[in-house]
């Protein structure tokens, strides 16, 4: 299954969710690839730590190769690095993505990433692929939307963030109508949830009233997230007994159940009716 974690609003938890959900998939035995499409490269630093200084290829090299005569599909595989954790691999990014962007847009390269990911998934047998995106609807987030089966929208329980969700839904609708009829919004991931506070619950209720799909479990807010970022160790491997680590394991499990029997190379294989435990359907 190929998923993008996307919300153009900054700081809602895209990178934290991508890395920790991927770690939870990997810990559950799924061969998992994380693709960092943000020039900030926070995802790459979180997963590779100090090894970032020694890597020779990033996703920028892949995009640059699509502008030249190199065989771009194979060049993506050169950018895949194993992490320190079993089953977890990543394609890191770097800040040259910024200067490449206008050239890529001008040459209509929006489908190239999806084509190359499909080749890599087929050759290397990934079960799960997750894309981390920049806080903008730009060439890179659009490339990811063109490459995936499903979109996960992180939501930070802020009243001002509800509009951002609707903008993501509109972007997905456009891609679905024009290019990928099977693209779905798999659900909204509630991040920074504080069970004791009333406001987040009220905001979530209002999303439910709008018939938006809210995934379970909600991700609680905890300082352990920042600690795990600075340790450079994803939560399921850092403090596996912490509530937030268990939240991520539970979310991964719910998503896997949702798509039981589905792998990244064959999204339709074994697709089942949504399980009630995996999401609270709002109808
Ligand atoms: N559940 C959580 N509990 C506590 N802190 C969190 C949680 N989720 C994210 N954070 C913190 O919030 C900050 C923003 O998170 P993150 O970088 O994942 O967001 P982002 O959406 O990727 O940001 P950007 O839009 O800049 O890419 C980080 O400092 C991270 O440690
Ligand atoms: Mg980020």
Explain what this protein looks like in three dimensions.
- The chain is α/β, with parallel strands linked by helices and 283 residues long.
- The protein has a single domain, classed as Rossmann fold (3-Layer(aba) Sandwich).
- It contains twelve helices and nine strands.
- It has a seven-stranded mixed beta sheet, with helices on both faces. The protein has a two-stranded antiparallel ribbon with strand order 8-9.
- α1 packs parallel to α2, α1 (14-27) packs across α12 (243-258) and α3 (59-66) packs parallel to α5.
- The longest helix has 17 residues, at 162-178.
- The chain starts with a strand and ends with a strand.
- The model is unreliable at 267-283 (pLDDT under 50).
- Bound molecules: adenosine-5'-triphosphate (ATP) and magnesium ion.
- Residues 14-15, 38, 42 line the site of magnesium ion.
Summarize the structure.
It is built from twelve helices and nine strands. It is α/β, with parallel strands linked by helices. The longest helix has 17 residues.
Properties at a glance:
about 280 residues, alpha/beta, Rossmann fold, 7-stranded mixed β-sheet, two-stranded antiparallel ribbon, 12 helices, binds adenosine-5'-triphosphate, binds magnesium ion
Query: From the alpha-carbon coordinates, what is the Rg to the nearest angstrom?
Result: 18 Å
The helix tally amounts to 12
Present as ligands are: adenosine-5'-triphosphate, magnesium ion
Give the strand order, joined by hyphens, for the main sheet: 3-4-2-5-1-6-7
User: What number is the mean pLDDT?
Assistant: 90
Report the CATH C-level class. Alpha Beta
CATH superfamily: P-loop containing nucleotide triphosphate hydrolases
Uncertain regions spanning at least 5 consecutive residues: 267-283
CATH architecture: 3-Layer(aba) Sandwich
Report strand %: 5-15%
Distance separating the two termini: 26 Å
Structural classification: alpha/beta
**Integer tally of domains:** 1
> Biggest sheet: strands, sense, closure?
7 strands, mixed
Order of helices and strands: EHEHHHEEHHEHEHEHEHHHE
β-strand number: 9
CATH topology: Rossmann fold
| Shape verdict | globular
The helix content, as a percent range, equals 40-55%
